[in-house]
Amino acid sequence: MTLRLDLLRHGETTGGSGFRGSLNDALSERGWQQMHAAVAGQGGWELVISSPLQRCATFARQLAEARGLPLRIEADLRELHFGDWEGRDAAQVHEEDSEALGRFWSDPFTFTPPNAEPVRDFAARVMAAVARLQRELAGRHVLLVTHGGVMRLLLARARGLPAQQLLQVEVAHAALHGLEVAVDLSLRECVCPSRC
């Protein structure tokens, strides 16, 4: 049996753009509006799962309460930790070390920013969490409130993209994408979230 997993990225945050990774930014007013708009008219979920970071968990908690759904926090579905790049934007990093930024953009699986979580470890952590969810929740329909990096990883795998193209997957704030997760952890992207 497959797990139907709708992926919802958090909205805009008060911290702005850039490498926010492990920073625990809150949603901005616009971010709240984006997320409410993303789930309007969507549903059928039996459970809401969220990253523990407040830009995901605060909205997930509110949505779960409003719809009478259970909420589960999954620490392994948090964003990639960017190490020394945390809190900085690409322009700042480029100014100081354009070669390092270029290497990360061109192949994030082989270049790790200083003191950051290697993307290979991040991918292993996320896929282990998805495997647990598939075993526990097969046959169910779940909303996962998470981050751009988590969604890029899962969507890239569903689309069969090579590892080097991970950062080319576009995931806007409050984007909603549907996946089916099979027992063998193969992923299939759904054209219409909530309607796989």
Automatic annotation (TrEMBL):
Organism classification: Bacteria, Pseudomonadati, Pseudomonadota, Gammaproteobacteria, Pseudomonadales
Pfam (any one): His_Phos_1
Family annotation (SMART domains): PGAM
Protein source organism: Pseudomonas schmalbachii
Protein name from the UniProt record: Histidine phosphatase family protein
InterPro entries: His_Pase_superF_clade-1 (IPR013078), His_PPase_superfam (IPR029033), PGM_Phosphatase (IPR050275)
